Amino acid sequence: MNIKDLWSKISHLGVDQTFDFITIKQIVLANRLAFVMIFVEISALVPGILFHKTAIIYSGSSLISLYIFTLYLNYRQRFLIAKYLLAAVTTVLFYLPHLFFAFSDWRINHQLVLPIFTFSIFSILFFQPDKERKHQYIALGVNFTFLLTYDQILHFGTHQALNRDILSPQYLEIKTPQILTWIILIFCFYFLKNLNQIFEGKLKLSNQDLTQKNEAIKQHRQELEQNLSDLKSAKATIEVKEAESRSLLEALEASSLVAQLDIQGKFIFINNQSENLLKVNKEQILGKSFQEIELLFDRDSDGLLTKISIDKAWESLLSGQILRRETKKTLHNNQEVWLFEIFSPVFDHTGKVCKVLMIGQDITKKITQKNQIEAQNLQLQKQQQEILTQQENIETKNKALVRINQNFKSSIQAAQAIQKAILPYAQKLRDLLQDYFIIYRPKDTVSGDFYWLNQIEGENLLASVDCTGHGVPGAFMSMIGNTLLDKIVRVWNITDPASIIDRLHEEIETVLRQKETGNNYGMDLSIVKWKQNENGNFDFQFAGAKSSAYYVLPNETECETMKGTRKSVGGYQNNEIQFEILQFQFPPNTLIYLGSDGLEDQNNVKRKRFGSKRLKQLIVNNAHLALTSQQQVFEEALHDHMQDCEQRDDILLIGFRLV
């Protein structure tokens, strides 16, 4: 065994080829470092023995055993323990004895501490990955600076102790081992560095070559696996196709009539389906000509015409053409069977027709269904014609309905115009109410709610009326109510609010003949009357028929309610209940609100009513605003409450200020 083989074996102690590149590099460098340090320590022992340096002898003998033990640990793949032995224990074994003897005797060769400790720090670098070397170099610089300072202190102390010139034999005796050690260590460091570079280069090239080969093998293996997978898929597909073909042939054999004819047109083969479809034994067909079999099952046509058509069809088959046809077979029991037949020529190796293959499928059900569908189509066409006739009649009626609807809309629009005409006009409202607002929203085109305003002998009368129903019935009731109020006040000169309601109740019963007809139509209403007295205040009266009103005094934060009598006008009512009148003295700028129950009863998407409580709170919160601004607030609140809900009743709300 030569030196090169020995060096390689020692370098690769404990190396497994499954390790990665970094791990192999660390193990090889550790083995080489331990092996070289054995000879370094042996060379260091020589000057130690010659000059009787106890620290060198102690350290060298200890470290030789340590490095041999490190090689053994790497051989047993105890890499972590070996790493700490080289990186940490080496430093301790060198540093402590030299430090101890340096302080006890200045003439001890302390100069060995710096190179050996520095080399120990270098050994740490060989065990770290490349990404950690930056931090190790920083640590090495700090240690090197500290040890250099320490070496100068020892050097100064030794020089003072000897009190001799630096060229004296005693000083050279101290310096000689240091210089020899530095030279050996520098040589070993660069030797290891060069070996490491050579080893890294070879290992990288070998690793790249192995990587490329592994990639090629991997790619080739993937291609083989893909080819094998494709072959398996192709085999499976072929097996499926074969199974399908067998199933198809078996199904064809089981469900179709299959026969073969020679070039003379005689049957040379026919399967057992002849008995199922044609109700004849195949022996009765074999050996007979195609024409004979056709005439056997075709009883309705002329034999001559059949022969001519067969001759033409046979010529086409012998020329290589495929023949398809639907034909009706009449059996011996007069049962009709429809077949879809395919005649396909079979060619020999010379390309000539050697025989004809015939396949016949039973399509009797299909033809029957087709005939039924055609009959149903005829029936549907007849029904469609009837529907078209009915549609024309419906369109005629629709046009008549459109005309009627148009006339009805015109009538409703005329009724709306009439209803608007009976309401107090704008100038009258400005003259009598001055500062006011009116929210008037019919549910339909015409409304069952209306308001009435008049002035008699300096007294103002205002009524808000909610008639039974809405739309056209409510509009009729509003016309009656408005006419009766004018008559009661202007003709009969009744101005007391409670008396007006009493007389209105009587007139409704009379006009609608409710005792004779039994109808129960009527209305709910509030009537207020006011006049300013000599003191500047207002004498105010209120009466209500199942309707209430509200007022807010100036500079007050409460909304008070004027409750009406729980009795409606018209219909069957308890005549013992009398309509009550409420009288007040109000200062100027008092706010009055009255209307129908449409606003309070309006629901939202959660079926929750707007409610009188919310209405009163809105009145209080906005009483300081102008009445036109209050109208906008009420309308926005109603819109937010309703959202997408349908308006359920006519809505009327009147607000005005006593001025």
Describe this structure in words.
With 659 residues, this protein is an alpha+beta fold. The chain has four domains: 3-194, no CATH class; 263-362, Beta-Lactamase (2-Layer Sandwich), CATH 3.30.450; 371-419; 423-657, Phosphatase 2c, domain 1, CATH 3.60.40.10. The chain has 18 helices and 15 strands. It has helices spanning 3-11, 21-50, 54-75, 79-104, 113-125, 133-162, 169-255, 273-277, 290-297, 303-318, 364-422, 426-432, 471-491, 497-511, 514-517, 598-601, 612-621, 627-642; strands at 256-262, 267-270, 323-330, 336-347, 353-362, 436-441, 449-456, 459-467, 523-532, 538-545, 549-552, 560-562, 582-586, 591-595, 651-657. The strands form three sheets. It has a five-stranded antiparallel beta sheet, with helices on both faces. Strands 6-15-14-11-12 form a five-stranded antiparallel beta sheet, covered by helices on one side. Strands 7-8-9-10-13 form a five-stranded antiparallel beta sheet, sandwiched between helices. Strand 11 (549-552) and strand 12 form a beta hairpin. Helix 4 (79-104) runs antiparallel to helix 5 and helix 11 runs parallel beside helix 13 (471-491).
Topology at a glance:
Blueprint lengths: L2 H9 L9 H30 L3 H22 L3 H26 L8 H13 L7 H30 L6 H87 E7 L4 E4 L2 H5 L12 H8 L5 H16 L4 E8 L5 E12 L5 E10 L1 H59 L3 H7 L3 E6 L7 E8 L2 E9 L3 H21 L5 H15 L2 H4 L5 E10 L5 E8 L3 E4 L7 E3 L19 E5 L4 E5 L2 H4 L10 H10 L5 H16 L8 E7 L2
Antiparallel strand pairs: 1-2, 1-5, 3-4, 4-5, 6-15, 7-8, 8-9, 9-10, 10-13, 11-12, 11-14, 14-15
Helix pairs in contact: 2-3, 2-7, 3-4, 4-5, 5-6, 9-10, 11-13, 13-14
